[in-house]
# Entry
Amino acid sequence: MTAPNRNTLWATAIVDELVAAGVDAVVVSPGSRSTPLTVAAARAEDLHLFSGLDERSAAYFALGRARRTGRVTPLICTSGTAAANYHPAVMEADNARVPLLALTADRPPELRDSGANQTADQEKLYGDAVRFYKDLPEPAANDRALKSVRTTVARAVAAAEGADPGPVHLNVPFKKPLEPTPVPGDVPADLDPAAEFGRDGGYVDVTRGTTEPAETDLRALADALSADRGLIVAGPADPPGLDPEAVTALAHATGHPILADPLSNLRYGGHVRVAPVIGAYDAYLSAAVAGDVSTADGGTAGDGNAGWPDPEVVLRLGASPTSKRLRKYLAATGAEEYVVDPAGRWREAEFAATDLVVAEPSRLCARLSRLVAGGGDPDWRRRWIEADRAAHAVHRGERDDGGSDGERDERDAFHEGDVLRVVADELPDPATLFVSNSMPVRDLDRFVPPSTTNVTALGNRGVSGIDGIVSSALGAGSATTDDLTLVIGDLALYHDTNGLLAIGRCDVDVTVVVINNDGGGIFHKLPIESFEPEFTTQFKTPHGIDFEPMADLHGLSYARVDARPEASGAAVDGDFPADAVAEAYRAARDADGSRLIEVRTDAESSHRTRERLRATVEEAVHGASLPEGDG
Ligand SMILES: Cc1ncc(C[n+]2csc(CCOP(=O)(O)OP(=O)(O)O)c2C)c(N)n1
Ligand SMILES: [Mg+2]
# Structure
């Protein structure tokens, strides 16, 4: 059927091409100028509409969904500041390589810079953060213009999902009427059907390839990896994640352990049963561990790092690891460090890497695993496995300062990392776990060991904002039937309370565990800690927010566990904090609907406990507590 006017025709062509490119959902925010796009999206078959009332949260919701699926998620908004509210999520999508498509409606060109209402300069609004930008021409009901807009949409999706995935931006001007109101004569009856209705499939079909090194380069890399002591280091993965099977195959062929960031898609899953996955490195590595020179007989001739030999070769996959200590350690080892990046971009801010390998990482690992003639040094591998085991034993309280009898004072020793440990232990299989920046992702990294549970752990490590976390988590949850759990800091939750509206509006269930330490606990890690009053008033920023009414407002059931050392007796009916958190989490997981569990903690005592545990782990692993030295 012919469209009632050119705006409807134009917007329908745009939406048609999105669907043909495989888009199954869009996130729409209300507004007038975007009416043609919104109505076209609402009327499209096979397209799910999520309605996001505020654009900042809407964009993060789309980001979370795209992160979980690896597929582009379009956004539709009106003109003006609405479009600017997409910017934080666009920045994260740029840095974390998440495919996102911002469709921002605009006034027609003659109204720009004219004082017209709700009109601002939206040209190249997101600057170089986007992979592709076009200010679309005004809607026109002729074959060439329609073929052009269909082609542009196909190109935008291809750019968003290309070898260097990320955000793209189409600015879309419309004149009135914006509704599907009949305008006689506006749409000619004799348009080319391919222009008017598109082709069978996409107007332009995009064939993708993978970036692969030549055979000779691959052999050289395989030779380098055939060293005795190597490491496969997997940082946060680009969506849709590293392939555990391919990386496991390479670990087997080389004999090298996999140091798996919790966001690498390799820390958790069935492959952990057979792969040497290491997860507690943040607890026992630092620059101080590096620098030992290995001798020919496998012993070491270093000075002062407790005989922990350096790796000869490191293969780094994904983004830069979350653990600063791991990054510093790698930089200090002097190993040959091969950084694999499918886009050929740089993600190694210590500038210690020796090689950039431009290749799709999973495919590279699969090919290398067939070429490596290594096997590695079993002592080297064992060293890592034993170190991990010792660290996790300390973290579980089996070997704390007070002795090895497993009896620690549960309340005094409880720290925020235990919340992550307990929740991870209780996760259903499969599960999607989103963690906020600041301490939750770091505690996940350090305290939650590899496990065979199928956990997809996600976080916004592109720019590490504490904004948009709730929305990102719910967006990820919208794309999966997995149980969804979000572990979030109190400031991060405060920052995106608007995001909670998606629970009701977008039909996503979540268990939110907020670690409420009344401010930014992370700042206790920094020297600013000793500069009062600024530390408390401007950094830690205690706010006293009570999260129970917030849970009420958004229809979440609520439970509280007070895990602060000074809390008298009852966390929940006299239980130890870890048991109380586990109990509250189990109750939430097994109930219908969404729930907020507020775990009240003390940031300072948690921080001191982390420090103490680090010293204990270092003693257990290296026989001595190591100097800080590396920030
Ligand atoms: C949007 C944004 N604003 C500010 C920061 C700086 N920042 C990093 S961590 C942090 C505190 C976070 O507090 P909370 O979420 O409660 O986590 P905690 O540190 O207590 O674990 C702040 C303000 C940031 N990363 N992102
Ligand atoms: Mg906090």
Summary: The two ends are 66 Å apart (CA to CA). The chain has a mean pLDDT of 92. The CA atoms of residues 6 and 141 lie 6 Å apart. The pocket of thiamine diphosphate (ligand 1) is lined by residues 436-439, 464-467, 489-492, 517, 520-522, 603 (CB under 6 Å).
